[in-house]
Amino acid sequence: MNDLPQDLPRLRILETWLALTLDRVRAQIAAAEQREAERQHGEERRPPTPDWVLELSIGVGAPPAEVHVGGCYATGKRRREISREQALTALAEGVRACTHCRPDTELGVL
What's the angle, vertex CA 72, arms to CA 70 and CA 74, rounded to 5? Predict the structure, then answer.
Protein backbone atom coordinates (compact mmCIF):
# COMPACT_ATOMS: atom_id res chain seq x y z
CA MET A 1 0.00 0.00 0.00
CA ASN A 2 1.54 3.24 -1.16
CA ASP A 3 0.11 6.41 0.37
CA LEU A 4 2.20 8.79 -1.76
CA PRO A 5 1.03 10.20 -5.08
CA GLN A 6 2.51 8.61 -8.18
CA ASP A 7 2.82 11.69 -10.41
CA LEU A 8 5.93 13.89 -10.35
CA PRO A 9 4.26 17.34 -9.86
CA ARG A 10 2.46 16.27 -6.69
CA LEU A 11 5.59 14.53 -5.38
CA ARG A 12 7.56 17.78 -5.92
CA ILE A 13 4.90 19.77 -4.07
CA LEU A 14 5.04 17.28 -1.21
CA GLU A 15 8.83 17.48 -1.18
CA THR A 16 8.71 21.29 -1.00
CA TRP A 17 6.16 21.22 1.80
CA LEU A 18 8.22 18.71 3.78
CA ALA A 19 11.41 20.77 3.30
CA LEU A 20 9.66 23.93 4.53
CA THR A 21 8.18 22.07 7.48
CA LEU A 22 11.57 20.60 8.36
CA ASP A 23 13.09 24.11 8.28
CA ARG A 24 10.39 25.34 10.68
CA VAL A 25 10.97 22.39 13.02
CA ARG A 26 14.72 22.99 13.00
CA ALA A 27 14.16 26.69 13.77
CA GLN A 28 11.95 25.74 16.73
CA ILE A 29 14.58 23.27 17.95
CA ALA A 30 17.27 25.97 17.74
CA ALA A 31 15.06 28.42 19.67
CA ALA A 32 14.33 25.79 22.35
CA GLU A 33 18.04 24.98 22.67
CA GLN A 34 18.81 28.71 23.03
CA ARG A 35 16.20 29.09 25.78
CA GLU A 36 17.58 26.06 27.61
CA ALA A 37 21.14 27.40 27.36
CA GLU A 38 20.00 30.77 28.74
CA ARG A 39 18.13 29.07 31.58
CA GLN A 40 21.18 26.99 32.51
CA HIS A 41 23.40 30.07 32.34
CA GLY A 42 21.01 31.90 34.68
CA GLU A 43 20.99 28.97 37.12
CA GLU A 44 24.79 28.88 37.18
CA ARG A 45 25.07 32.63 37.79
CA ARG A 46 22.26 32.93 40.37
CA PRO A 47 23.63 34.14 43.70
CA PRO A 48 23.31 31.67 46.57
CA THR A 49 20.32 31.91 48.89
CA PRO A 50 21.32 33.74 52.09
CA ASP A 51 21.08 31.87 55.38
CA TRP A 52 19.30 34.72 57.19
CA VAL A 53 17.37 37.77 55.99
CA LEU A 54 16.29 40.92 57.78
CA GLU A 55 13.10 42.45 56.38
CA LEU A 56 13.16 46.24 56.63
CA SER A 57 10.28 48.58 57.49
CA ILE A 58 9.22 51.49 55.32
CA GLY A 59 11.01 54.80 55.77
CA VAL A 60 14.48 56.03 56.54
CA GLY A 61 15.62 55.06 60.00
CA ALA A 62 12.62 52.80 60.62
CA PRO A 63 13.33 49.69 62.73
CA PRO A 64 13.63 46.28 61.05
CA ALA A 65 10.32 44.44 60.63
CA GLU A 66 11.14 40.73 60.78
CA VAL A 67 13.91 38.14 60.73
CA HIS A 68 13.54 35.34 58.16
CA VAL A 69 15.34 32.15 57.23
CA GLY A 70 16.94 32.63 53.81
CA GLY A 71 14.58 31.58 51.03
CA CYS A 72 11.40 32.22 53.05
CA TYR A 73 8.48 32.88 50.72
CA ALA A 74 7.02 35.49 53.08
CA THR A 75 10.00 37.86 52.94
CA GLY A 76 9.04 41.26 51.57
CA LYS A 77 10.85 43.26 48.90
CA ARG A 78 12.82 45.42 51.35
CA ARG A 79 15.34 43.00 52.80
CA ARG A 80 18.99 42.62 53.65
CA GLU A 81 21.14 39.53 54.00
CA ILE A 82 22.50 39.12 57.53
CA SER A 83 24.77 36.70 59.36
CA ARG A 84 23.69 34.20 62.01
CA GLU A 85 25.06 36.46 64.75
CA GLN A 86 23.15 39.46 63.39
CA ALA A 87 19.96 37.38 63.27
CA LEU A 88 20.45 36.31 66.89
CA THR A 89 21.12 39.91 67.92
CA ALA A 90 18.04 41.19 66.07
CA LEU A 91 15.81 38.62 67.72
CA ALA A 92 17.32 39.43 71.13
CA GLU A 93 16.60 43.13 70.53
CA GLY A 94 12.92 42.38 69.93
CA VAL A 95 12.68 42.16 66.16
CA ARG A 96 9.82 39.84 65.28
CA ALA A 97 10.53 36.34 64.01
CA CYS A 98 8.65 35.31 60.88
CA THR A 99 5.74 33.03 61.77
CA HIS A 100 6.11 31.09 58.51
CA CYS A 101 9.79 30.11 58.47
CA ARG A 102 10.39 30.30 62.25
CA PRO A 103 14.00 31.61 62.35
CA ASP A 104 13.89 31.64 66.15
CA THR A 105 13.41 27.86 66.13
CA GLU A 106 16.12 27.39 63.49
CA LEU A 107 18.52 29.51 65.56
CA GLY A 108 17.70 27.65 68.74
CA VAL A 109 16.34 30.73 70.54
CA LEU A 110 13.17 28.97 71.74
Answer: 140
